Automatic annotation (TrEMBL):
Cupin type-2 domain location: 70-129
Organism name: Enterovibrio norvegicus
Pfam families: Cupin_2
InterPro entries: Cupin_2, RmlC-like_jellyroll, RmlC_Cupin_sf
Name of this chain's protein: Cupin domain-containing protein
Gene3D superfamilies: Jelly Rolls
Length: 319
């Protein structure tokens, strides 16, 4: 049977060249982290911490103040929660369709079929954690046309294989490989263009609302019957010290625990582990485990569980 694996927040290894905007002014100081699965990095320099395929990918982005991630889209789910700092998320082909500000602990289930970007608007280095749908995370990233143009002007070219080539390092497209084609007009015209009120109502859950709702039992944040109704190939529930079921549990499907606040104890078989904010643990299907909180006070974590739902387009059922 596969054994649990974990990554400490302090052991995360960043990549500064993961994506096509790595040289673009305003984005050239961001750091990307691939925690579980291969993610959607376009660079062979990206370090993968846990080589597992639990049905979704776990990653993170760290950025100094006023650093932004350029507008892009995915074919599968992309969910973020703010671990540290204050962040502005914006969307639309030019980033002007709408925006929302997220504080620490807030979670955003970003709809597919729309360009999105994000910026650290806090005063210190910030970190957001991400969950991407599917083992292959949808096959990569679709960048807004103006992002591709800016990257080309600063020496970065994206091949049709999804690999990034840096002409400043004398890298060129291999023989037989063409540049990744730009999105066609028909695809661009079909993009979603929701306003901010719609996005906040149906796709954002606030941390302190989740804390209040989960006072006595865990709250389903993302799922068919969750606060944010969706079927992206996984569910996410939110646990606090007061809602914790202090009994042995079994991971019926692959489970990932992502600590937001506090210090937690995870035990399985004859092993135990203390978990701190920013730590991530993968529990393979069939793992019997026990969770507890070490001290009183604020404690919270997100639990991601694989489902049999296809990790495709955001569910279009009733919101």
């Amino acid at each position: 049977m596969k054994q649990p694996q974990w990554v400490r927040f302090g052991d995360l290894i960043p990549c500064r060249s993961a994506f096509i905007d790595a040289h673009t002014p305003g984005s050239d100081q961001k750091e990307n982290f691939t925690i579980i699965g291969g993610g959607v990095s376009e660079s062979p320099d990206q370090h993968i911490h846990i080589q597992a395929t639990p049905g979704f990918n776990i990653g993170a982005a760290g950025q100094p103040p006023r650093c932004f991630n350029s507008l892009h889209s995915h074919n599968t789910a992309e969910v973020f929660f703010v671990l540290k700092g204050r962040w502005r998320f914006f969307w639309g082909e030019t980033g002007e369709d709408g925006e929302v500000v997220l504080e620490e602990g807030d979670i955003f289930n970003i709809p597919t079929r729309m360009f999105r970007g994000f910026e650290n608007i806090g005063s210190d280095y910030g970190m957001i954690m991400s969950i991407l749908g599917g083992d292959d995370a949808g096959g990569g990233v679709i960048w807004a046309p103006h992002v591709r143009a800016a990257a080309d002007a600063h020496g970065l070219v994206l091949g049709e294989s999804g690999r990034l080539y840096d002409t400043e390092k004398n890298e060129t497209l291999p023989t037989g490989e063409s540049e990744m084609p730009l999105p066609e007009a028909q695809w661009l015209n079909a993009l979603l263009r929701p306003d901010a009120a719609t996005v906040v109502k149906h796709y954002v859950a606030r941390y302190w609302d989740m804390v209040a709702i989960s006072a006595k039992q865990p709250v389903l944040v993302i799922g068919e019957n969750g606060l944010l109704k969706d079927k992206p190939g996984f569910t996410i529930d939110f646990l606090t010290r007061t809602s914790l079921n202090q009994q042995a549990q079994t991971a019926e499907k692959d489970v990932v625990l992502m600590v937001m606040r506090g210090h937690w104890t995870l035990a399985w078989e004859d092993e135990s582990l203390t978990l701190n904010p920013g730590d991530t643990v993968w529990l393979p299907e069939g793992t019997d485990y026990y969770l507890d909180v070490n001290v009183s006070g604020e404690s919270s974590l997100f639990r991601v569980t694989r489902t049999e739902d296809a990790a495709g387009l955001t569910w279009t059922g009733d919101a």
